[in-house]
Specification:
alpha+beta
Length: about 150
């Protein structure tokens, strides 16, 4: 199961870091404590709709854009078969969804999956009950930056 608060937090953090802004700058602009914003970004707290709108405003982003991005990430996780099943520690390379291989990374199984040419996804098995989904969506040719969103 993908935790919505983790996906939201990761999307907010990716936007903030993409703007090269500090937690202090964004928390001040959104009128929220630095510690609370940090907990939101780490997926430990779930922000209210009002607070989420204030953070988006501080980041110069539309709430609908952020929620669309979160929705896309959750939908992608739901479509991937076996995202949260244990992975074996066997070396392998990235391949399409049909053959989800594994390679070892600091003692944790990492399954590299690519859904299409525009989205790359990897799943890291942190423990038998916890997995982290990381997706990267490449922007159109006129924009060279990327969104990176993590979920667990």
């Amino acid at each position: 199961m993908v935790l919505l608060r983790r996906v939201i937090g990761d999307a907010l953090r990716a936007r903030r870091q993409g703007q090269h802004r500090t937690l202090r700058e964004v928390s001040s602009a959104a009128n929220v404590s630095l510690g609370y914003l940090s907990e939101i970004e780490r997926g430990q707290k779930e922000p209210s709709s009002e607070l989420l709108a204030a953070i988006c405003d501080a980041l110069g982003a539309r709430l609908s854009e952020l929620l669309r991005e979160v929705s896309d990430t959750v939908a992608l996780a739901e479509q991937m078969p076996g995202v949260l099943v244990p992975v074996q520690d066997e070396p392998a390379e990235s391949t399409p969804v049909a053959a989800a291989p594994v390679h070892k990374a600091t003692g944790r199984g990492v399954r590299q999956v690519t859904s299409d040419g525009n989205v790359a996804v990897s799943v890291r098995q942190d423990s038998p009950l916890k997995a982290t989904l990381r997706s990267a969506r490449v922007r159109p040719a006129d924009r060279s930056d990327r969104d990176v969103v993590c979920a667990a």
